[in-house]
Structures are given as structure tokens and as C-alpha cells.
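Researcher: Go.
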Amino acid sequence: MNKKKMIRLTALVGVATATGVVAEANQAHAATTTTTETTNQTTNASVESTQAAVDAAQSTFDTAQTSVDSAQANVTSASNNVTSASAALSSAIANKEAATSKNIASATSAVSSQAVVVASASQAVSEQAGVVSAAASVQASAQAEATSASASLSSSSANVASALSAAEAALTSDQSTAANNLSAAESAASSASAAVSSDQAAVDNAQAAVASAQAIVDAVAEVQSSDVINMSVAYITALKNYLANPSSANAAALQEVAKGADYVKELQQKFKSDASLDVVVDPSDPTVQEALSVYNLINHLRNQYGLTTAFGASANANVAAIDFVKKYYDDEDWNIFGTTGSDGQGHNKNGLDAYADQLNTSIAEDAGSGLTTWVNGKATMATTTLHNLLYAVYSDIATMLFDDGGTNNWSHAQSIFEDGTILGTGGFNNVYLGVAFDKYGYAHYELYNATEGNQLGNNAYSLDVQTAAQALLTNAQASLASAKASLQRMTTNLMVAKAAVVAAQNQLAALENSSANDLVAVTKARTQLASAETSYQTALATYKQKEEALKKAGDNLAAAQASLEADQATLATAKAKLAELEETVANLTNADQLLAAAQAAYEQAVANLTTATGNLGAAQVDLAKAESQLALAEDTAEQAKVRAAIAAQVDQQLNGSTANDRQSAGQDATSLKTNGRALTATVATASAAKQKQGANQGRLPQTGNDDQEASAMALVGLGMLGLTTGLYGYKKKKITE
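Model: Structure:
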């Protein structure tokens, strides 16, 4: 059960001696056939009957439990009512104690005073209601005037539209066509003029490109003479000795022949300054990048050094250099030299490693002061000229060659002249050089190992600087010629478009002068339109004035309503205070009656609680009875199941085929344990059953005829079991909640 724990009954089975009975059964078995069908039917019917009793007891128990729950709820409610009545009684007692003549007189006086306050507040509300009514009337009048002004404005607008329509209708079809033609011609002329301006800008740009290319050609010619840096035999020998063995002695010897900063300044002064180079350029422009690449001093120096392999130059290498410098210097605000040259961050080694991984190649970087070596300090990127860039490259290479000692340990010179390795790092067997300038003006020389995979050698520039420079000039001149041809075409188109405009203007003027009637109609329409517009403006001004008056009236009404609401709130507060005072007077005046009523209510609540408590006790007694009956019914059902099991086993043993089986049946019947309880059954033979039939006839059920008597008598043991259960089955177990 899922209800409360039930009282369980202990079934004590009577014990009968079985000595000699089994032998009688064995002797009689040969002549008697035991029939088990009747026995089994009887025991099964007993099981079903006892289970029905259990179900009925369970239903009775559930009903009793519901009654207890309801009675308990009634007790709780009655208890709460007692508590409430007690509080009310206490309040009535206190009120009775305060109901003196002095207190009653005082409360009555307070009521009179508050009544005066209420009357005054009520008067204020009435007066303010009048103010609100007047303001509402003004607002309604203003609304009507505003509505009228709006209608007048709408009418004026319609008149303007009508006059405009009349003016448009007055124009003849020819005039409309002529006006449309003029508009189209003017639009075409405007487009042609814009095209001419665009092509003129293209021509200007192409001419600038030609000038820049011509300057590059001139500069390359000068490179062959004045800008070429020549190294002495002594310098080359000292540099080779140092690179082979970078000892302090060889470093000192190299420093001696290199001449240092003084010689660098001497070389810088030899750089040819040409006015043709003072062209403002973008260092990342492809044409400028190619110019910097063909201005190739390094390979000339490698030839002097005795190396036969040249560093390559390509558009792809330059693009990679620009991309690397932007990503790892400009975007990261990485200032390689700083503001003084000694407070910079140096090479971005992490960036070099990352970019080498990205391109899957080897990268080395040289860096120079770049544009900071120009006159008066750093040149801004916005005003950088071709002269600045070429001078920066020339000056950086001169510094790397002849003033590269100290902390640099001639590393820049080493990167220029080593063959197959760069600064001791293997993997450089196809070197391509890319040049880029960062946002601080410093120059970066990126040395890449080009492979088929990274394609850094693709779009290579010619290392014949004169040929490459001349190709730049040729391309620029071709672009200029194309731009000039386009400008000529657009200029011709503009002339045609302007002529069309003049023709359209003449056509429109002729049509306007050819018809006096048309001109009169147009003039009349224009006059009507002007009059309508004047009326519209007048109506618009009136409308705005009335709208302003309406707004003001609305504001006044809102203010009056707000004052009314405030007065109403004051009146409500005064009335509430008056009601409270009147209630106090009533309570003091009727203190005796209120106390008597509270006392009666309290006593009734106590009586109700007593009744509810008694009902709960009775319901609990009924629940206990139902609980005991359910437990008894369950134990009876359990015993019926045991008897059925014994009967089945006895009949099986009596129908055994051998003496050994019957002996075993007698022993099993003598001692049988079911559900943990020892049960000893008495087994009767068929002949013994007949002898005792008279004595047991009234108690045993008649389950069949004489032929079935043996089976019926086999239930004697079960009958004895039932009797002993009836005698000893009402001992209660202890309940553990």
C-alpha cells in the first residue's frame, strides 16, 4: 500500500501430529483415486473471495482518509477564525476603554472642523470647473477658426495648382518640343564638357608620366657616370678578408680603407641633382617601383666584387615588399629607427618570420634612413619626389658599404656581396630585391629567395637599366598619345553639342515670337499663377496664426484641467479625513455594542473550533478502524494463497506413482514453509475421511459426489489451518511511523 503503514496480523498455524497418518494414506491410495480438480476450484475461489475483501477494505480506508483530511482543514480554518476574532475582541476592548465623554467630545469637534475643510475644498472644485468650461469654449472656438483657415489654405493650394496647369496648357506643342530639345541639347553639352574635362585630366596625367619617365631615362644615363659607386681594390680585398674571417684585426683594417662617414658624405655630395627629378610621385606606384628597381646600384657593385650572379628585380617582389612593410611596420606602428635614430624598435623579426612562413621562402631585410637623409630632415610621403627616392637609395647603399661598422658589423655589406647565403642563412640561391618605404620615411630592402611556388620572380624587370628606362618612357609616351587622341574626340563632340544648344535656343525663340496669341495666353496664365500664389501665401499666414491661437487655447485648457485635478485631489483627501474622523466618533459612541458583537463572534469561533476538533477525532477513529480491517483482509488473502498452495502440493503427492513418492508427500506435507512461516498440515486418507465425515459435514464444503470425497477430505488440513488462524490471527504488530 502507498497509504499509511498498516497494522499487520500474524497467522499462527495449529500443529497436528502426522505419525501413522502417512502410512494410512499409502495403504488407502491403492484403492482410491484422488481427484484434484474440486480441491483446486475450492481454494482458488477462496483466494478470489479474500482479494475482493481486500479491495473493499482499501476503498473504505481511502474514504476514511479523505474524511480525516477534510476535518483537519476545517480545524485549521476554525483556528484561524478564533485568532481573527480574538484580535477583533482586543480592539473592541481598547475602543471601549477609550470611549470616554472627553474623547467623544474631542472627536466630534474634529469632525465639525473637517467638515468646514471639505466644504471649502468642494467650493474650490466648483469654481475651477467653471474655469475649465470657459477654457474649453475658447479652445473649441480656436479649433473652428483653425479648421476654417486650413480649408482656405487647401483652396488656395488648389488654385495655385490650377493656375500652374493653365500656364502649362497655354504652351503650344511646338514650344514644349523646342524646350525639350533645348534641355536635351544642354544635357548633352554638359556631358561632353565633363568628358573633355576628364580627358584633359588624363592628358595632364599622361604628360606628367612622360615627364617622370623622361627624368628616369635621364637619371639612368647619369647613373652610368656620376651616380655609380666605385670600390677601390684595397676596400674589396679588406672586405673579402673580413667576410672570410671576421676578426677584430680584419674589422679594423676594413674600417681603415672604408673611410667611414666622411667618405659617405663625399659620395652624397656627388649625387647629381637635376630639376627634372623634382616630380612628386607615390613610392608605391608601379611605375615608380620599376624606376627604383632599374636604378640598380647593387648589381654593379657585385660585378666589381667579382660575383657573376645578379640580384633580380620584379613587380611581384616589389608588391611583396610593399605588402610586408604595410602589414608589419605601418599597421603595427613599428618605427624601426625612432625619432633620433637610436630610440627605434629595430627590425620586426616576428613579422619577418611570419611573412617568410606565408610565402614559404627565405627573407632577409636591410633598412636605411631613407627620406630622413634629405635636406632639412625627413621628407613627408605626400611631397616625396623622384629625386628624394633615388637619393635615398643612393645614400643608403653608400652608408651600407663605407660606414657599416660598429654594432652593424658590416652585416649590410655582407648581405650585398654574399653569394648563395644572406647573413649566414642558407636557402638564397635565386635572390630578388623589393624596395618599399614605410610611413615614417625609412627605406626597406627586402631580399627574397624566389621559387616557382612563391612566384616572386614573375613579372621581372630588365636588368639592362638603360633599356628598361627607355621602355618606361616609350610606354608613357604611348599613353600620352592615346590620351591626346581621346581628348581630341571629346573636344569635337563638345563643339557639336554646343552647336545643338544654339540651334535649340534659336528654335524656341522663333516659336515664342511667331504667335502673339500664345504669348498672351502665357502672360495671362503667369498673372493668374502670381495671383494664386499671393492668395496662397495670405491663407498660409492666416492658417499659421490660427494654429498658434489654437495651441495657446489648448495650453490654457490643459493648465485649467491640471488645476481642477489638483483641487479634486485636495477634496478627496479632505473627504477621506472626514470619513476617518466620523468613523472614530461612531466607534467611540457605539463602543458597548461593538464590544458585545466582538465577544459574541469570538465565542462562536471558539465553539466552531471545538466542533471541528471533535469531528476530526471521530474521523481519525474511523480511519484507524478502516486501517485494521484492511490489514486483516490482506492477511486473510495471504493465508488463502497459502492454503491453495498446500492443497495443490498435497493432491500432487497423493497422486504419486510409487510408495517412495507417497512417503515423500507425507514428509513434505508434515513440514512445509511458506512466506517465511512453518506450516504443518494434517493429511487424511480417503477411509479416514469417511469415518470423520459426520463430524466435519457441517464445516467442510460439499465440492462433489462420493467419488470426489477423497479430494474433499484432503482439504481437512486446510480447514484446520483456517480454524487455527481464526483463533490466533488478531495479534497486532507494533506500528512504526
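Model: The first strand starts at residue 312 and ends at 313.
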